[in-house]
Design a protein that fits this description.
alpha+beta, Glutaredoxin
Length: 250
């Protein structure tokens, strides 16, 4: 499946309950959302603003567990199998830029995917996994992983950088004052590879097939693809406001 997926559960279904009711301030309920995305995925780039809003609105009430899922693990193979008969990279570029025009907040270069086309999202995922490990050990400031993920998407979608190249990744990290030596140690030791593999294995276990995918309520609910913020918010509020034993109606 491509990364341009339908909303699940569907907006017209009864699985989504919208409400403007504020959850009780005294309540300490907290939910975990596992968020899968590919660094080269347009819809994940589009939805960054929605994830930021979710964190701003709910703060510590929501715990986001960000995972990396390689929809674009083999760019050439993906384009050959899915876009060759439609016009190849040129057609894909037109598709991406036409979709991006629908979102005023998005910055995108009209030559994206045509200039400095990356071979794979996996090198970026590996580098991000290394940064996440370094952050977990307290060796960089909290939030370094997310900041670098955003920087990578900006570098690709607006600056046309080939973020599958190690020298580009190192240069971007250096510009952000991230410790390349420590990051490289995590890669050389195999730890970053293991972290990448863990994300992919979890995606397989949860049957994740597209980017972005948000999974919560112990995999009872998931939202995939271009999901509007109000849909995400409604799901979160429903989980925070209702006791766990009231969430299943069967």
């Amino acid at each position: 499946m491509d990364d341009y997926a339908a909303i699940w559960p569907p907006e017209s279904g009864t699985a989504i309950i919208t409400t403007d009711t504020k959850f009780p301030e005294a309540s300490m309920a907290k939910i975990k959302i596992t968020h899968f995305s590919d660094i080269l995925c347009l819809w994940a780039y589009i939805s960054e603003i929605r994830v930021d809003q979710l964190q701003a609105d709910f703060h510590e009430r929501v715990e986001l567990d960000f995972r990396l899922f390689p929809v674009f693990g083999n760019v050439k193979g993906k384009m050959e199998s899915q876009w060759r008969d439609k016009g190849g990279l040129s057609a894909y570029n037109q598709h991406v830029t036409s979709v991006a025009k629908q979102f005023n907040h998005l910055k995108i270069n009209p030559k994206v995917w045509l200039a400095n086309t990356p071979t794979s999202s996996l090198p970026s995922h590996l580098y991000l996994s290394a940064i996440r490990l370094v952050e977990q050990e307290g060796l960089v400031d909290p939030g370094a992983f997310l900041k670098f993920k955003k920087r990578l998407r900006n570098a690709f979608f607006t600056e046309l950088k080939d973020i599958s190249k190690s020298d580009v990744l190192c240069g971007l990290a250096k510009n952000m004052a991230l410790p390349n030596e420590l990051i490289q140690q995590k890669i050389d030791s195999g730890e970053a590879f293991a972290a990448c593999a863990e994300d992919m294995q979890l995606a397989k276990e949860l049957s994740v097939s597209s980017s972005p995918t948000l999974i919560f309520n112990e995999d009872r609910q998931r939202l995939t693809g271009n999901v509007g913020y109000r849909i995400i918010e409604a799901n979160v509020r429903e989980l925070l406001e209702r006791p766990i034993n009231e969430q299943s109606w069967c």
